[in-house]
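[recover] target loaded
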């Protein structure tokens, strides 16, 4: 189970994610839908520990992604649209 509680991300005066809460249960398939700039990628980057949150918490099977990142990340798999890999140049 993944639990997101009161997640908020601000960049100065701009709020990218505002007090988002939800649970993802095992055995189900979920998706984020919304227009560009709605906070989908920001939320996923926070959930996977690639980006810090301004407020809130994310738990993966009970492990807080910010307090126990190694344990939480072992339970996740995520491939973003633009993977953070070295370019072949």
């Amino acid at each position: 189970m993944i639990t997101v509680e009161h997640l908020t991300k601000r960049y100065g005066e701009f709020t990218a994610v505002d007090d988002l809460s939800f649970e993802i249960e095992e055995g189900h398939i979920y998706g984020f839908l919304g227009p560009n700039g709605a906070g989908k990628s920001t939320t996923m980057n926070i959930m996977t520990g690639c980006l810090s949150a301004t407020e809130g918490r994310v738990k993966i099977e009970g492990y807080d992604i910010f307090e126990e990142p190694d344990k939480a990340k072992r339970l996740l798999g995520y491939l973003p649209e633009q993977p953070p890999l070295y370019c072949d140049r």
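[recover] notes: The domain at 2-73 is CATH 3.40.50.300 (Rossmann fold).
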